[in-house]
Amino acid sequence: QAVPAGSHVRLNLQTGEREAKLPDSENGRSDTREERRRKRLGKVDVDSNSFTSQELKKALAKMKESEKAERKVRRAHEEEVRKKFRPIKQLKEEFEKLNVKMETDYEIMVKLIGKYNSSASTLDEKVAALYDLEYYVHQV
C-alpha cells in the first residue's frame, strides 16, 4: 500500500509486517522538507509545469518593481550621507587654503619611519618616533 512521502516506515521483525507511523502535524500531513518549502512559499503550486507565462510575467514585474523601490531607498540614503560629509580631497583643498596641511595616518607613518632611519636623528628622536609609530600601527 502506498504511504505519504516522509512517513516513518519500519519492518516489525517479530511479526514480519511493515508499519507506517501516522503524521504528527495538525493537518494530517508529515512536516517533510517539501512541506516546509511549501509553507515558506505560501499557497503556491511549486510544480514548474503549472505556471502560465502570464503568471511568470506578473511575478517578474513585481520583482522588478520591488528592486526599483529598494534602489530608490538606497539612493536617497546615499544622498543624505553625501549632504552630511565632504570628500577628503575637498577637505584637503580647504585646509591648504587655510595654510593647514592635513596628513593621513599612512603619510605620518612614512615620515616617522624616515625619522627613525635617519642618521641625523638623535637617540631621543628615534625613541619618540618609535613610540608615535607604535600608536599608529596599533590603530591599523
From TrEMBL:
One of its GO terms (molecular function) is adenyl-nucleotide exchange factor activity. Keywords: Endoplasmic reticulum, Protein transport, Transport. InterPro entries: Hsp70_NEF-Inhibitors. It comes from the Eukaryota. One of its GO terms (cellular component) is endoplasmic reticulum. Residues 16-35 have a biased composition (Basic and acidic residues). Residues 1-46 are annotated as: Disordered. One of its GO terms (biological process) is protein transport. This is SIL1 factor. The gene is Sil1.
